[in-house]
Amino acid sequence: MPQTAEITRIRRSKARRLSTVPRAQTDDSVAVTDVRELPSNDRNVMRTYMQEISKTALLTREEEVVLANRIKAGDKSARDHMISANLRLVVKIAYEYNNFGLPLLDLISEGNIGLIKAVERFDPEKGGKLSTYAAWWIKQSIKRALANQSKTIRLPVHLVDRISKMRKITAQLADELDREPSDEEIGYAMDMPVNKVAHLKSVSFRPASLDAPVGEDGDTTFGELVGDENEASPLDNLQEKSTSSDIKSVIERLEDREAEIIQLRFGLDGNRPLTLEEVGERFEITRERVRQIQNIAIHKMRRLMTDNERQRSKEEVQEERIEQEKMRVLKEFFAEQAVS
Fold first, then answer.
1. Other CB atoms closer than 10 Å to residue 174's CB: what's the count?
2. Model confidence over 259-298: pLDDT tens digits?
3. Where in the sequence of the chain do the CATH 1.10.10.10 domains occur?
4. Per-residue pLDDT tens for 156-178?
5. Residue 171 vs residues 157, 200, 318: alpha-carbon distances, Å
6. Is pLDDT of 241 > 80?
């Protein structure tokens, strides 16, 4: 029996067996995307594109195997068929990266390149579905395009797997505890020392100026000290939203001695962070007095940052959230490139 006829037979047989089950119930189905949020000049193009790619039905596992075998034999029509049947998956994934610096249509175009690579490399004998395999290639292609579009992020990338694991565990614990888990709880779940958890958080979220280690053991950072679990703390603002210029502007509003002590203790002047004793020697005061002044200054900074945050518009907050998410994606891309 010709293989095209075999696909038709499989499709009809499957339809009879699943006549009471909608075909689109699988994880791989992709509904036609709402285009109302797109720029007006892209809406018609996107509607037309979605209508066109929806004409090709999603493939069953059996159909994927048949087509994959034909592709191995050099059948170009089978390759085109498998690509066409999975274009909706590209659109779904591309929407996850919208507003990251490239237009949606460009993201889809880049994702299609990844899909083509996946189809050409897919081996059903290894198990798994094409959609699962293709999703990785699609995301890689989109991330590469975003990285090429924005060359500003250059970060250590060997920690990406641990960071990804930490985020998943943090989310799971937050659901179970109905609150944000502590570093100790995250560390216990990951079988990892607390200082390592703090380090993963710092490289994942914080600007460099907040990563400076403080204290004699070096396992506390400036970003951690500014936070306060008992308040509606600006810790998240520091970790996710503030820039070095934001921090500088807040420090400039402190008293001269407070500002200088903060800069010395946390290395914000570009030099290494100083211990309490070293700062005390400079000002000819005790280390305990340095600690008191430091804590007073940090309390003022928290209040000032909270006041600044309240003055931000919704548009500014949303814009910064998009930028932060864009940075996260780019970090993951560079990390994946380093370990591949």
1. 13
2. 899 888 877 766 778 888 899 999 999 988 998 898 888 8
3. 205-339
4. 444 556 776 888 888 888 888 87
5. 22, 15, 22
6. no
Per residue in 245-267, pLDDT (tens digit) is: 567 777 888 888 998 998 888 77
Cα 240 to its chain centre, rounded Å, is 12
The strand pairing partners of 214, in sequence order, are: 220
Question: Could you tell me the two tokens for 335?
Answer: 């990390």
Tell me where in the chain the CATH 1.20.120.1810 domain(s) lie: 3-149
Distance CA 103, CA 113 (A): 16
Other beta carbons within 10 Å of 38: 18
Q: Which residue has the tokens 């292609």?
A: 141
Residue 132 neighbours by CB distance under 10 Å:
12
Q: 221 by DSSP, 3-state: which?
A: strand
- Binned at pLDDT 50, 70 and 90, residue 86 comes out as very high
Contact indicator for 157, 331 with CB cutoff of 8 Å: yes
Token digits for 112? Answer: 């299609």
Dihedral angle, C-alpha 196, 294, 276, 183, nearest 10 ° = -10
How many CA atoms lie less than 13 Å away from 14 in the CB half-sphere?
A: 14
Beta bridge partners of 213: 221
> Global pTM?
0.42
Q: Which fold has domain 205-339?
A: Arc Repressor Mutant, subunit A (1.10.10)
CB 205 within 8 A of CB 240: yes
Q: Which CATH number fits domain 3-149: 1.10.1200.120, 2.60.120.260, 1.20.120.1810, 1.10.3720.10?
A: 1.20.120.1810
C-alpha to C-alpha distance for 2 and 21, rounded to whole angstroms: 28
> What span, in angstroms and rounded, lies between the C-alpha atoms of 300 and 314?
25
Tokens read off for 192: 């990892």
pLDDT tens-place string over residues 320-336: 667 667 666 766 666 66
